């Protein structure tokens, strides 16, 4: 009954991040191939094209000679990337100030009292399902639910009618809809299918845009790190006739360190929720976690623990040299979770973020300005780690020889 209440109020909640094991396991197995390295390599030209649009958009902003709010800037880029790679459509968030997809993204993540209430009720629905049902008319996101369900259904119907094949995320969902036997006795309803596309849109644009803007913030504060990273980017371009390829990005080791240190200092998801599948007692203690116990794992606290990361408030990419990483416990770094329930789209998130940063830093220098908030202030009202009031930086064109 509790599940029925939730589905009536929040039909797009049936996504991989929240599904119970019965439906999660077969869906995870079938959807995982969309995010293999091979598939990501096929997406690379699409991501690069969006990054080119980002570069052109920044050029227009730079000409105005005003501070640039980087959270919104990067969110527009990642919205376009997610749109073309997940939905197979042009979302035009960079070129269209009235982009419907960008508006939906803002609507979902803006820390309003309604969004906060919906999140808190959703987290503890087991014990207060009566309240969740009673507040249906307040907490439901009718416009967002209808929009994404309609979009996904229309795209699938169009592809089916016109025999359009893109080998992307929507195609995989369409195959599951046509062949429900591949996921056992799960009923592939419109809301279940739409939920998967919905959550990957949200995670794909929001988490990556947060990471991009936080990286730019730290590079603006640490010019020597920015210069070293730009030098690596320029070297890779020079080695490959000024072309950026999938393999080039993989070779940028310092970029990888900077990226990982950003996620260490600013993990977008500050905690993970898990549920024990069996009883477990910690070695050498009497502390026991009973079966079916819900557990919160404090990612932010682990990443900022001075016993694990000395001087945790210092931005230091050298924390991620091979030797240093091997000396740490694997569970001391959890920006994408770990285990079987880790983030399915990690590779996608990493590459769209890195490509966007490469395009920006190769052509532009980022610096602090009068509107830059120093020190960084975390917005306590949001459920992902973001800066309060946005991230304002000065971006200037680099005169390349």
Provide tags for this entry.
single chain, disordered N terminus, 7 strands, mainly alpha, two-stranded antiparallel sheet, three-stranded antiparallel β-sheet, Cytochrome p450, 17 helices, about 400 residues
Summarize the topology:
Blueprint: H1 2-9, H2 21-31, H3 37-63, E1 68-69, H4 70-87, H5 100-109, H6 113-123, H7 129-134, H8 136-139, H9 142-162, H10 169-178, H11 190-221, H12 223-239, H13 246-251, H14 253-265, E2 272-275, E3 280-281, E4 288-289, E5 294-297, H15 299-303, H16 322-327, H17 346-363, E6 364-367, E7 392-397
Antiparallel strand pairs: 1-7, 2-5, 3-4, 6-7
What does this molecule look like?
With 401 residues, the chain is mostly helical. The protein has a single domain, classed as Cytochrome p450 (Orthogonal Bundle). The chain has 17 helices and seven strands. The strands form three sheets. It has a three-stranded antiparallel sheet. A two-stranded antiparallel sheet has the order 2-5. It has a two-stranded antiparallel ribbon with strand order 3-4. The longest helix has 32 residues, at 190-221. It is globular and about 60 Å long.
Tell how many strands the DSSP assignment holds. Answer: 7
State the separation between the terminal residues, measured CA to CA: 67 Å
By DSSP (H or I, 4+ residues per run), the number of helices equals: 17
| Strands side by side in the biggest sheet | 1-7-6
**How many structural domains can be distinguished in the coordinates?**
1
Order of helices and strands: HHHEHHHHHHHHHHHEEEEHHHEE
CATH classification class:
Mainly Alpha
Shape: globular
Reported CATH architecture = Orthogonal Bundle
What is the subunit organization of this protein?
single chain
């Amino acid at each position: 009954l509790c599940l029925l209440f939730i589905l009536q109020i929040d039909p797009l909640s049936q996504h991989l991040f929240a599904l119970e094991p019965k439906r999660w396991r077969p869906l995870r197995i079938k959807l995982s191939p969309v995010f293999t390295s091979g598939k990501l390599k096929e997406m690379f030209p699409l991501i690069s094209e969006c990054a080119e649009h980002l570069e052109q958009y920044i050029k227009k902003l730079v000409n105005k000679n005003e501070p640039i709010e980087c959270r919104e800037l990067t969110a527009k880029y990642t919205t376009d990337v997610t749109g073309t790679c997940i939905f197979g459509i042009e979302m035009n968030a960079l070129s269209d100030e009235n982009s419907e997809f960008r508006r939906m993204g803002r609507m979902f993540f803006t820390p309003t009292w309604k969004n906060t209430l919906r999140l808190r009720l959703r987290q503890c629905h087991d014990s207060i399902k009566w309240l969740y049902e009673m507040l249906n008319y307040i907490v439901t996101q009718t416009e967002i639910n209808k929009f994404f369900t309609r979009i996904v259904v229309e795209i699938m119907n169009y592809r089916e009618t016109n025999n359009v094949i893109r080998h992307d995320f929507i195609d995989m969902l369409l195959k599951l809809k046509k062949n429900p036997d591949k996921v056992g006795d799960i009923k592939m309803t419109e809301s279940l299918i739409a939920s998967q596309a919905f959550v990957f849109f949200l995670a794909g644009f929001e988490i990556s845009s947060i990471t991009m803007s936080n990286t730019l913030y730290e590079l603006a504060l640490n010019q020597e790190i920015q210069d070293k990273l730009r030098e690596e980017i320029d070297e890779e371009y020079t080695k490959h006739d000024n072309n950026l390829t999938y393999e080039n990005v993989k070779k940028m080791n310092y970029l990888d360190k900077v990226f990982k240190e950003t996620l260490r200092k600013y993990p977008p998801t500050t905690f993970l929720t898990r549920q024990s599948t069996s009883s477990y007692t910690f070695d050498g203690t009497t502390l026991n976690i009973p079966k079916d116990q819900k557990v919160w794992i404090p990612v932010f606290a682990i990443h900022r623990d001075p016993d694990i990361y000395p001087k945790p408030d210092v931005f230091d990419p050298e924390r991620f040299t091979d030797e240093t990483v091997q000396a740490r416990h694997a569970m001391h770094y959890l920006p994408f979770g770990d285990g079987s329930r880790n983030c399915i789209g990690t590779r996608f998130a990493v590459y769209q973020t890195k490509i966007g940063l490469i395009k920006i830093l190769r052509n532009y220098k980022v610096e602090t300005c009068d509107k830059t908030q120093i020190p960084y202030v975390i917005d306590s009202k949001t459920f992902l780690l973001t800066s309060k009031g946005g991230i304002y930086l000065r971006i200037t064109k680099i005169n390349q020889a």
